[in-house]
Amino acid sequence: MNRRRAKKTSGRLVGAARAGDVPALRRLLRAGARVDAPDRYGTTALYAACVQGAAPAVRALLDAGASPSLESGSGDEGTPLCAAACWGYADVVAELLRYGADPAQREDGGRGLSPLAWADRCGHEHVAELLGGGPTAGAARARPRPSCAHGTEPAH
């Protein structure tokens, strides 16, 4: 696949992931889309699906070989597990962990927040428990919570 077509296909893959469109994801992957290739903004399909809480799309991408710990984009993006933890998508967190996502991996090349810190900061106790934090994992719950926006706001 030539470079221009590959970029276009990556953009479509990210769009299908963001929409939770599993049939389109499978079609694009069969047509040669690289599962971990970012779109022109640096966003990966797995990250986009995680921000939306699209568990079936997350599962399809992981089944196709997507790396569960690959950081997406720059700035307000990060790891798929951090995104799912931030938004409180326990089913997506569980899938990522099942496929080997590292619950201790911090974003921003190790300088940012961990998935547990995001879950704790955003008040998602059920997700914090999945990540090994327990119901009283952090003192952050006692403090006013800063913004929990991680990546693009979910479409639903």
Question: Can you describe what's shown?
Answer:
There is one protein chain. The protein is an all-alpha fold and 156 residues long. The chain has a domain at 3-102: Serine Threonine Protein Phosphatase 5, Tetratricopeptide repeat, CATH 1.25.40.20. The chain has nine helices and no strands. It has helices at 3-19, 22-30, 45-52, 55-63, 80-87, 90-98, 107-110, 115-121, 125-130. Helix 1 runs antiparallel to helix 2, helix 1 (3-19) packs parallel to helix 3 and helix 4 (55-63) runs parallel beside helix 6 (90-98). The longest helix is centred in the first third of the chain and has 17 residues, at 3-19. 46% of the residues are buried.
What's this, in brief?
This protein has helices at residues 3-19, 22-30, 45-52, 55-63, 80-87, 90-98, 107-110, 115-121, 125-130.
List the defining traits of the structure above.
single chain, 156 residues, mainly alpha, Serine Threonine Protein Phosphatase 5, Tetratricopeptide repeat, 9 helices, 49% helix, 0% strand, Ankyrin repeat domain-containing protein, protein serine/threonine kinase activity, Ankyrin_rpt, kinase, Ankyrin_rpt-contain_sf
